[in-house]
C-alpha cells in the first residue's frame, strides 16, 4: 500500500512544503496563543433544594469547546467563543416540573490572575417529559483588549455554575453525580 501512495506523496510534497514557508506575518500568527480556558474547580455541579431541604434539581456543566481569533484592526485584541453544555435533571418526583433555572458565570483573569471581568448569565434548561432531564448548549463570546497581542496566552477565561456558599461547600465535600 505504501508503494501505491508514494507517487501521490511525492506529487503533494511541494504543496505541503509551500504551506511551511511562512512569511513573517503568518509566522507571527503561529506564535500567538489563545487565552487558557477552563472550568473553575468545584463549580461544575449544583444540587438545588426547596425550603424543606429536599432536592429539586441537579445541574452539571458537562462539556465545553472554544476557540479564539486575533484582532489587529483598531488595537490589539482577542475574541473568544465558548460553547458550554449544561445538563439538568428534575429531582422533585412528587411534582411535574418543566424546567430549572440557574446561573453560570464567565470571568477573564489577567496575566497576574486578577479578575478583570466577571459576567453572570441566567439560563433555563427544559426537562424532557419522559426522561425528566434536559441538555442545552450555550454560546458565549468574550473580547479582551490587549496592550500587546503576544500576551494573549497569559490571560485566562474561567467559567462555572454560579453557586451559593452552601452549594460550593457541598461540592467541596464530595462529588455530586447525576442519576443513571
Task: Report what the structure shows.
- By secondary structure, this protein is α+β, with helices and mostly antiparallel strands.
- The protein has one domain: Immunoglobulin-like, CATH 2.60.40.
- The chain is 20% helix and 46% strand.
- It has helices at 2-20, 24-31, 165-173, and strands spanning 36-39, 45-49, 55-71, 77-90, 99-109, 115-126, 133-145, 156-161.
- The strands form 2 sheets. A 4-stranded mixed β-sheet has the order 1-8-5-6, with no helix packed on it. Strands 2-3-4-7 form a 4-stranded antiparallel β-sheet, with helices on one face.
Write a brief caption for the model:
With 180 residues, the protein is an alpha+beta fold. It has a single domain (33-173), classed as Sandwich (Immunoglobulin-like), CATH 2.60.40.
Shape: elongated
Indicate the structural class: alpha+beta
Radius of gyration: 23 Å
Gap between N and C termini = 46 Å
Q: Overall mean pLDDT score?
A: 82
Total beta strands = 8
